[in-house]
Amino acid sequence: MRIKQLFIPLTYILTLISCEKKSTDSDISNQNKLESIELLNPEIMSDGGVKLSIKVNSVPTQDVYTFAIVVSEDSLFTKVIHTKPFELPLSIKSYSYSFSSGFKTNQKYYYSYMINYGSVNKKEIKSFVFGKEKMIQIDSISPRKANINDTLTLYGNFKDYHFTKIMVGDSSMHFAPTNSGQQIKMILGSNTPVGSQIISLFTEYQTVKSKEEFSLLTPKILSISNNVDIDQEITIHGENFSPWREGNKVYLNNIAVNLTSYSKNMLKFILPNSIKNAILTLELTANNHRIEAPEKLRLMEPTLLEAPLNLRLNQHYSLKFKGLPRTNYIVKLDDKEVYINQVSNQGGFQTISFSPRGDYYYTTKKPKLTLHYLDKQITIKDQIEIVDKWELVQSEAPFEVTSFSGSVIINNESYIGASKKDVFINYPFRLWKFHSSTNSFTEIQVPYMTESPLIAGNNNLIYLYTGKESENFHEYNPATKTWKKLNDYPGLKRGGAVMSMVNGKLYITGGTNSYQNVYNEPDNSLYAYNISANKWEQLADYPINTIPEYGNRIHATALSLNNHFIVVGGAKTTGNVEVMAYNTQSGQWIRKADYPPLMWQTSFEHEGFGFVLKDDIHKYDFNSDTWSKIDENILPYGLYSHTKTTFFKSGQYAYCVFNNSKSGFIRIKLTDLLK
């Protein structure tokens, strides 16, 4: 029993000893594992900032690829504000990181460490209250002068600082501290201000300014190309241009141009054809400076080599230059633009071919000839003679030219028959008295409906055929300004006919009839009106068999020469060339010299000759039975064979009124038609 009693305590003691030994070994192992990485207490720096340290007592056996100190605003590390990794591989030593800024003063923060981007070690956490930031100092800046997009370097002790922004003057810049903490590099952006500037560094609670000043390089223009041409490369020589393409801009009269080449002392561009001025203000921007060239950029001054001595309408002329800039040109006579046919540039010479088209008429016969390009004017001749005989009367007449129904002269005053412009009533037809002294018309009301009216005159009276079926013939007395009805024209209603006065009788022929259901039936009948007897009689028809295929006369014109009623032009087709004259004494039709196959001509008689106008003026000599074209008097551009014109004489002038693409009212001296 005694032995048993002794055995039990011994076994208990041995068991206790064994348990105590196992417990001690485990505690030592765990303690060694925890103390292999030791979190040290924070060190509050007297001059500002805080130093946080971790001591590695032994290198962990596991692979370590990240080892960092972690700072948070809360002990659960849900508000981490700094994670600062240390360099690897780990070694047995203390690792520290000094924070000079980046914390709020008088606020408590918590820190621990993290391995391999795992969770933060929350078994060992320490805390500190941040007191104040460490004062920053900028030792120097370099370079002191630079370009936009260059890198500016700040030198000083910037390690462990958390910068919120860096400014040049009042403009923020992109920046990056170097690993050494001794430099801060920043790119000078396009917002860098000009002039001397202070560099400012900002942390959470302090701002430090550089003692040295920085400024952008100031560009300077030394010279530019001059006497240049459009599409030519222009060179600007100077200093301190930006070495970056986007850092340079060139402007001509405030309009940007594209650079073809650039360097710090030279810029090149092509002079664009879009410029508007021959003398240009050149400006450029570089490094945020905008400067103006000391001299204007001037286009080359051209030299005039050839120019016409005088001008004629519708003829081609040339201006020849050397050194004329390649741009758009305008040739003018006084203030009227002249048509340019062609521009050529060969062998260093520039030739401008132009034509003073006939839709320009000049009250002066010696206008100023000028060449215009961009904003420049070159006077070719102060006065250049226009040898054409036509001159402008007015821009237009008050009547419709296409409704012209003849002209007469009563007591040396001219009267026109035509419809009033833009009047669409039952009685649009008017007589128009022309006043040559003022080149104006007086409107005379016609109280009758008309359809294809014709007028003719004798002594002091004007006769009107209305073209209607009844009440179609009337007399107007200009002296009393009264109308009188005469015996009706007895033939069928006709349009497109001609009527003329020969030896006191009116003769009418040609055109077409329209009656009942018949329209445009050729009418070759000839009627004469005896004024003294107020009586009509039918005479020998117009001979349609002379040229059978051209037997019908529509829209011809008539002349009264040597006791003959002469029908000129007009046709059912456009091919009728024959001229037929009715001898009012013998009563016979006579074939005369052919005339160009035209319709819608107008005519008058003067000094025993007939003058017919269409595209040109032809003079008819009855005695020699010949037609001659008056070449020296070229008519205005715009008169075509399908255009009806008004051609009449008054006083010492022949007048032409036409209205096609252009309207014109022009005149020529009658003496010029006789030459």
UniProtKB/TrEMBL annotation:
<dbReference type="InterPro" id="IPR013783">
    <property type="entry name" value="Ig-like_fold"/>
</dbReference>
<protein>
    <submittedName>
        <fullName>IPT/TIG domain-containing protein</fullName>
    </submittedName>
</protein>
<dbReference type="Pfam" id="PF24681">
    <property type="entry name" value="Kelch_KLHDC2_KLHL20_DRC7"/>
</dbReference>
<dbReference type="InterPro" id="IPR014756">
    <property type="entry name" value="Ig_E-set"/>
</dbReference>
<dbReference type="InterPro" id="IPR002909">
    <property type="entry name" value="IPT_dom"/>
</dbReference>
<keyword id="KW-0677">Repeat</keyword>
<dbReference type="InterPro" id="IPR015915">
    <property type="entry name" value="Kelch-typ_b-propeller"/>
</dbReference>
<feature type="domain" description="IPT/TIG">
    <location>
        <begin position="219"/>
        <end position="288"/>
    </location>
</feature>
<dbReference type="Pfam" id="PF01833">
    <property type="entry name" value="TIG"/>
</dbReference>
<keyword id="KW-0880">Kelch repeat</keyword>
